[in-house]
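Shipment paperwork, digital attachment
Item: protein structure file
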Amino acid sequence: MKKTLYIAGLFGFVLCASLMSCEDYLDREPNTTVSGSDAFKNFENYQGFVEEIINCIPDKEKCSWCPSWNWGDDEVFNPQGDDRLTHQIDLGNFRKWYQPTSDLGNWLLTSSNNPSGINQPKNHSLWGHAWYCIRKANMGLEHIDEMIGTDEEKNRILGQCYFYRAWWHFELMEWFGGLPYIDAVLDANNIPELPRLSFQECAARCAEDFRKAAELLPICWDSTSVKGQDEKNQLRANKITALCYKGKCQLWAASPLMEHGAQIGALSSGLTYDYNKALCDSAAETLGLALNLIETKANEQYKLANFDYSDIYNHVMSDEITPGYDDLWCYSDLFYTLNKKLKNPGGNEAIWRGPSNSSDNSSNWATAKVFGPKMAGLVAHDKIIHQPTANLVEMYGMANGLPIKDENGNYANGFDPTHPWKDRDPRFYHDIVFDGFKYLNGSAPKNQQPYVYCELFTGGNMRPVADGSQTGYFIQKLVPHTCNEVDKDYADKWGDGMHVYISYMRLADVYLMYAEACAAIGGATQKAKSFDKTAVDAVNVVRERCHCGPVGGRGSNANAKYITDNKLFMDEIRRERAVELSFEGFRFNDLQRWLLLTEYPYNTKYSVEFTRGESDDFYKFQNGEDPKDAKVNGYHLKPIITRNFGTKHYWFPFPDNDVYLYEGFAQNPGW
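Attachment content:
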């Protein structure tokens, strides 16, 4: 028999026999060890044992020199990145995820998997560590009676172990569907034939573990007598984290894919809007409870980041900060910090994230150098470039809150194709580099002077497919455009400079999940018993933060149909997720669970094509002109990639060597 799923994945049978030192928790040295009995003898040692699980959480954007994590319809690479998993997914070649002999930039399985590799993001991956961490969580639960400590200390350990066991299962389920739920330490010599559960059955097991975790963990570690150590309590699971994940787990289980199974045509048949209402009700109550706690008891611990900019294009914060916001955390700081001594991105909005240390300087050396144009040496290193698709950019609506297209796909609601950058959602100007944008702020050498202002029109000097943008845009949400060879915001500063990280869950996401769960039950005015905001209120909280208009719009173009029509309102929630969570790695799973991966237009990636309608003098910006005011001619989208997906593409395949475990554990359909 070939290696089993458990033996192949749970290499922890050997590693756990030599348990890691617990003295330094999240920062301990990887070569220090203690005996198994010492690991469980007191809270300090036990906590160190548990926190190796946190160290194993994959760092998606630093797992490779050029990482790949956006697999929806939101991003493309230029041809030098054809071997990256982003392009392989476009080709339908999902099996590539478990073929690490060539570096695909893939956080699901890296070529190096070492749970003991502290502060080494290239050592951590989902498949490589999930089984190991589930086993550690089960060991933590089974040995609790050996610990000498207070009831509060024991509850703290138990709560974390329940949380981690559920979290690692759920992360796997998002990509592979239902699994056997492993709730005991398995015997390497006698593998039980655990049944493979459906997604909804497995989600119920996860939700129960998250519930137990929420009951055992505090809202805030720092406010209790058991504080942990090393000032990293913001990285540890707490009651709110557990509630948010329980609600997410319930919403995912309620979603159309899990309720109806993989199928083609869900958009035309309406199944994409058909959720399991009982599970949605549970999700809404759970997420509502978490939001109520956040707004009433944890408002200093969790809050939406500030979005007040004096210069939105260069991410310069305003001197006049909105009252109630921490002026140390702006929207940009959710994704990167700059010259803040490698302060972890995420701030008070991060509900869950892993350690984001950058001792190997990978933020500066790698991540920060794969988002900008490569011609004339504008951005250093190899020529792979993350680029936003034009269809995703069109998800950014108007400043008044309305989408730029109506339900029939026609431009509407104040959008003018001759002035396509004008009066857009403020997040557009923060996230997207577009034609006429000033890309180089410093003094450019002669060979780079033609690129000071972006030429992203059809045939412009930044449109070569090989080393520019084939879509007509660049991304600067996660890495600012000033990471270039003139402005040098990715300067290789050890211990300072650029630090990049994408949280696994942040507060805006929780508001939008709550809104979706409520809307699936009763539309825009639905609300949970546990929280006083309606679905539309929750969406508008996220929009108000960035000064965008509410659902339904404001002013002369306001249209109530986006609130009163339940399907149009759900479309607005989904569009809001696309914009607010853009390029953060959520889009594939959203399209997947909504049964939209196979559906037009979501199976197509587009570029934007146009010519300039202004004189060359306008683009010198010497008289106070703003690139968003530019006039263009012939604005239209052009398909560049069509993904020929079938129903099998709704789930990733298991590695071939891991599906010969027993008859009840089968490969995903179609693979």
